[in-house]
Amino acid sequence: MVHFGGADGQQAGSRPVVSVVVPVRNGMPWLEHQLRALAAQEMAVDWEVVVADNGSDDGTSACVQRWSARHPRIHLVDASAGGGAAAARNIAVGAAGGRLLAFCDADDVVRPGWLSAMTTALADSDLVAGVFDFGALDGAPQTVPVPAATRQLGFLPFALSANLAVRRAAFESVRGFSTDLSPEEDVDLCWRLQLAGFRYAVTADAIVEKRERADNRQMFRAAWAYGGCGPRLYERYRSSGMHRDVRGALKAWVWLLVAAPGLVSPARRLQWVRTLGIRSGRLAGSVRRRVFFP
Predict the structure, then answer these.
(1) What is the pTM of this model?
(2) What is the DSSP code string of 189-249?
(3) Within a domain: residue 160?
């Protein structure tokens, strides 16, 4: 089932230029904040928001339908048949009409001007990464927004699906997100696009406020999962030039030892737990995959 509303600044029957895709599973209450931020985006062209509900049971669907009634450019897609966020995004793209695609997450908040900046950047690129403010939603002091990643995995730069835009033609040429990878499907998409010759760029004007994990246990689990991505990606991309950074891994483990006495500071503790999770996840993934990617 696909629920589409009518026109809110769009002509009935017109085809949007840009489609924003938001996958979600049990996104309450944060989804409300993201939809408010998306509804406030100002664009000179037709655009839409496609929320792909991946089997929520917490009122997410009803929330999107309420927003769609007020802002009919917001649409709800039933993506419960998809096995995870990557499949949900692919289903949403199939229902979307835009020739430009922008992706963000349900628990973050896009800043004013985010969509316009992404659209402008795609005029000269095929794939665009925005930047993140990693502290704004958690009460941390304001920092200069930064890209999520550049070359930290020893290969090509990449964007995260929480702040990514791509031309539909490019997206479809590589068959969208790989549904057999999680949570590194966004890294894989960016690398496949670049290896196919598509142009990558970063825009500092497309800012997303990223919601960090609430406690040390959640942070460690998330970091462990992302750490396990490294060996899987290395197994897939070493023949294309991905390499190990053994020196960087050793520096990270040394830092974990040196920084341990400072764990009385909550901010230092979260950073330490994140680093420990990533490095431990990489070692565990290396054992599982029988490849060495520390």
Answers:
(1) 0.90
(2) HHHHHHHTT--EEEEEEEEEEPPPPSSHHHHHHHHHHHHTHHHHHHHHHGGGT----HHHH
(3) yes
Segment 124-136 shows an average pLDDT of 92
Same-domain status, 229 and 86 = no
Tell the residue number behind the tokens 């499907």, with chain if given. Answer: 185
Closest among 113, 96, 94 to 47, alpha carbons compared: 96
In the chain, the percentage of residues whose pLDDT exceeds 70 is 91
| Interval 201-218 mean pLDDT | 87
Residue 294 lies in a domain: no
Report the 10 Å Cβ neighbour count for 222.
Answer: 18
Domain boundary at 209, 232, 250, which?
209
Angle at which helices 216-227 and 266-289 cross, to 10°: 30
Q: How far apart are CA 99 and CA 186, in angstroms?
A: 19
